[in-house]
Amino acid sequence: MDIANTPATADGNPQMADAPPEPKQPPLIRREDYTPFAWLVPTTHLDFALGLEKTRVVATLDVERNPDAEASPHLRLNGDGLEPVEVEVDGQAANSWAMDGETLIVTLPADRHTVRIVTEIDPSANTQLMGLYASNGMLCTQCEAEGFRRIAFFPDRPDVLSTYTVRMSGPKAQFPILLCNGNNTANGEGEHGTHWAEWHDPWPKPSYLFALVAGDLVANSDSFTTRSGRKVDLNIWVRDGDLPRTDHAMRSLKKSMEWDEEVFGREYDLDLFNIVAVSDFNMGAMENKGLNVFNTKYVLADEETATDGDYDGIEGVIAHEYFHNWSGNRITCRDWFQLSLKEGFTVLRDQLFSQDMQGEAVKRIEDVRVLRGVQFPEDSGPLAHPIRPDSFREISNFYTSTIYNKGAEVIRMMRTMAGPEKFRVGTDTYFDRHDGEAATCEDFVKSIEDGAGLDLQQFRLWYSQAGTPKIKAELVPDASRAVLKLTQTVPPTPGQPDKQPMPIPLKVAVHDRASGTLGEERLIVLDKAQDSFVFENVGDQPVLSINRGFSAPVSIEREISNADLVFLAARDDDPFARYEAFQDLVVGHLVAAASGDGLADDAKSAAREDITSAFAAILADDALEDTMRGELMLFPSQTYIAEQIEAADPGRIFAEREALKAHIGAALESDLVALHERASAIPFGFSQEARGSRKVKTQALVYLAAGAPEKAADMAAAQYDAADNMTDRQGSLMVLAGMTGTAARTGRLLDFYNRYKGNDLVIDKWFAIQASSLHPSVVEHVKALAEHPDFTMKNPNRVRSLYMAFAGNPHGFHDASGEGYRMIADLILELDPLNPQTAARFVPPLGRFRKLEAGRSALMREQLERIANADKLSRDTYEQVSRSLG
Ligand code: PHE
Ligand code: ZN
Q: Keyword set for this entry (predicted)?
């Protein structure tokens, strides 16, 4: 059946005459409906007889009535695709059970029982990668959020904490290594070449933190001694050939352990910490107690195969998962609406860690770029939700940039208002009060409030209101003073038409352009719809520097001249504000040029001159480190620019943005060539200087490619050929991949492929470089790559490397024909039956249609409707598509 041509019925659901009616829609789960579970499960025993095609699981649960819940004789155990093979209560085969859909209900007469249930699963058929699945001949698990129910019947909710003992057995040759949470307590040999291991985790945990791994793995082993003297064995488990690429991950782990002791006073609490790298994984990594499971992308690195960005990503994700041991595991979430309790806080913790490792300013700019590139669009679109959502149909859809990144920003604001020392008292209070519990966001806020001595009453709105606040700022000079007039509005979002003003902490300074004097920084909190703040002794030409350090996740509109922005871009003492000034200069120009009637020629060239002179100042500033210079040189993303325009035309934005790059590249050609030469002379290393040189080197090529393409092609080819590291190689190949009329493009792409054939992570880069390229034929390239023998729908990294890169490529995805939208819709429909979680992640780019000019808007919407009308959709994709259209 050609789904594209299926006529829709009145309610939008195509139904064939005699097909059984599909369940209308998955149920909506509401935060306010929370009730505690009727039973406690103090201990859980699991016994696994492992096999790739058949694994038998015996789950034995000691249960007792929960005195804090409404009593019920029914023990409701979640299942997903499971059938109970045997059910026993207190050692006797039981018939007091029934299935209610996927849920197993066991009726229990007394206050305490032991329930034993046998299930059988086929890990090799598990393409969703949730529950127990096979990857490259090994077995591993992913249980967050609701994957445990695909392994065993269980109250699969985060507020049911249990102490687990696990026994697993399997063929020794196939699975020489058997790992689980906690400590390895016993091992032995069985019949027919099998062996077994027993593991015990002394820390009660929810089922989503359960993990098991069985496979042929080797470890990079080391140890860390905690400050109270506990010696912890550390292992990073990988496939045999990957061992040489694990040193950076191990160093990152040890630094994380030390940092969490120093900065948050948190020590590790077991004698063993295992990390396993798997190549088939839906997300980045998972914080299972004592047994973190990682996407190989966030473990493996050496200079030949990983970029500086990859190294930083590994350091950050290793830290993130390790930090979860306290913010997530020791204190977990009461329900999934509280997800930001662990994720927002843990992201903040990993950001602060990376700031300490790599330098605060650059890391802050990078984090803000992600927030504005991903979270702001989410917050202004149909999928907007508060950091503590009120409802969902499929929790996997709520692992969002809002929960993670905005969640971190909200906690960061508390820290900014309290100051780091008092904030630490607040987090200590939180850890003391709630250790061992399944807590709520409210518990966290209350702890910070009490511990840090802040009044967070109104601040709690940040947890309940979605949408990015908009601040209008006007600096009105008044003799020797200046009055800063601020207004805030929080835009309406789905289900939240009216908003209240929120407390917004803004770091502000007023500089003087006339004398070049820099004003002192002040922290003001705007907590009303409108307010004014007076600055004394401001000088003759006061210039506003606001939201310094990006102290609040808001968007600022300020009346400011280009001359003032050029001044700030060259002189502001706050590195973020300096970055921001240049971004504003570029964004302001591109918005004007690519919307409405556009700009007259003279206005356009005047703005281009301002931008070029600011850019020249960035290139020439000897006091700048190259790591920072590289940040300042980066153009605002197309998505971020489009966000500022009603009915945006991606084609116009793209053309104007490229034209501006070309202008800079041509006007500053010799400076850029000189910068490239200077940077190329610095030998490879991991010092800030060497890393910075690699960053500016490729940035120089980016502008030269636009403004002096022939020269750039030669330089990029030379950089590629001389590269002794992946950063230089990938950077030059990225530039070449976007160029036409150069033989260097095809030659180097082929060389790259042949050089790294068989290394999945690097071949992912090869796909992504082409899918995100500026090349005019990118649509055709992506279609061809989808037919490449190395492309597979079964591996999420590979799917993302081709299609996420493409969906983020403005001139491919937004091709005026609508072909890009169709390709992403095709992908969603093909992937949904295999891996709904990953399929649903491709819906948000299609949900942006309300923001686009009419032609593309209609084409995009058509594709969403085509998906909505498909015969059978997963809960994941159904929810995302219906919200996007809704
Ligand atoms: N909890 C993981 C993290 O943030 C993310 C994750 C969610 C991984 C769901 C897998 C599945 O670190
Ligand atoms: Zn996390």
A: Aminopeptidase, Hydrolase, Metal-binding, Metalloprotease, Protease, Zinc
